[in-house]
Design goal:
Number of domains: 2
Order of helices and strands: HHHEEHHHHEEHEHEEEEEEEE
Radius of gyration: 39 Å
Distance between the termini: 118 Å
Strand content: 5-15%
Length: 350
């Protein structure tokens, strides 16, 4: 009777015996670099010249497109509409701006890629891993490689390419300058002045009638707008954002600031309704204290003391409008506000 040992060790195939899977190759082995193959431009100067001319023409096209962008912005009216298939009706200026700027950027990108693929060096360089802090010899090698790359790019020898690239990179950014100009209208002196001027009557916003001194009662708060401004005007909100006026009548002996009294008429004072913190309209009036309160952030101003800030985040007093009575007995402005209206801004000196 033959004895069989059924231990696990004997059931497993042994190395080199049938049934043993063969050893697999290292899946992470370094494949190495294929032999370098020179390009046609590397051995044929005429081919290199042709590539140079292609790149130069692309950069020149970018310059022309940039000038087209600027011309489109200046010459094409904003309201002009054209039909573009298959998009439909679009703004002619937007279409021209997008097309010319896209062509300029595309030509610079394609030109740079063609330059790199056909004229710059394409020899692969192997750099072994090294510590994060480079030793001095590596730093020297980096600078040497950079100088060699600059030499391989032929930017010093191929003057046509260099000048074309410099021209494209100089002209195309002008497109961004033109776009910055279109971020909004130039403020010029608009932040310093409103539509109020000498002789303009104060119009009651409640009934759209000119105000007389007898219309303003002691302790009341009246809102007014300049003569000639109407709610139906297209720019009404823009104008009133700076010209809105509130009028109070105080007992003359209660006015603390002499200039405020001189700029009023028989205790009638006219102040800007626009808070000097963030420009909210002021509408809350305390009759006994002569204080007005901004409902947005609780800035409080004393109308009996030149619109001085007595509480809250506002940084400037309320501008006052100098008023008088005209020949027909109506309240009229004697000029513009004494200070810029609304929140402070960086150009403002006081």
């Amino acid at each position: 009777m033959t004895h069989q040992d059924n231990s696990p060790e004997e059931r497993l195939p042994e190395a080199g015996k049938p049934g043993k899977p063969p050893k697999l190759a290292d899946p992470f082995a370094d494949p190495g670099l294929p032999p370098h193959q020179p390009r046609r431009q590397d051995i044929d100067e005429r081919a290199a010249k042709r590539s140079e001319h292609v790149v130069a023409r692309l950069f020149a096209t970018a310059v022309i497109a940039a000038f087209g962008f600027i011309a489109s912005y200046v010459l094409i009216p904003k309201e002009k509409v054209v039909f573009i298939f298959p998009v439909g009706h679009v703004s002619a200026q937007n279409f021209a701006l997008g097309g010319t700027l896209g062509i300029a950027l595309l030509c610079i990108g394609v030109g740079a890629i063609h330059w790199a693929r056909t004229l710059m060096s394409d020899v692969e360089h192997v750099s072994e891993r090294h510590p994060i802090e480079a030793p001095p010899q590596v730093r020297q090698q980096v600078f040497a490689d950079f100088q060699q790359g600059a030499a391989d790019s032929a930017i010093g020898r191929r003057k046509v390419l260099r000048n074309a690239l410099l021209g494209a990179l100089t002209i195309v950014p002008l497109s961004a300058i033109v776009l910055f100009r279109d971020l909004g209208p130039l403020p010029e002196k608009k932040l310093f002045h409103t539509v109020w001027s000498s002789g303009k009557r104060l119009i009651n916003m409640s009934d759209d009638r000119p105000l007389r001194p007898e219309d303003i009662l002691v302790g009341s708060l009246t809102f007014a707008q300049p003569e000639g401004v109407h709610e139906s005007d297209a720019d009404f909100q823009v104008v009133m954002a700076k010209a809105a006026l509130m009028i109070v009548r105080l007992i003359p002996t209660e006015i603390k600031d002499k200039q405020s009294a001189d700029w009023g008429h028989q205790g009638i004072l006219a102040y800007s309704k626009i808070c000097t913190h963030v420009g909210c309209p002021i509408s809350l009036y305390e009759q006994q204290t002569h204080h007005v309160l901004c409902p947005c952030h609780q800035s409080t101003f004393d109308l009996a003391d030149g619109g001085r800030v007595i509480f809250g985040p506002a940084g400037h007093p309320l501008p006052q409008l100098r008023i008088a009575v005209d020949s027909q007995g109506y309240l009229a402005a004697q000029g513009d506000f004494d200070k810029p209206v609304g929140p402070g801004f960086w150009e403002r000196s006081a």
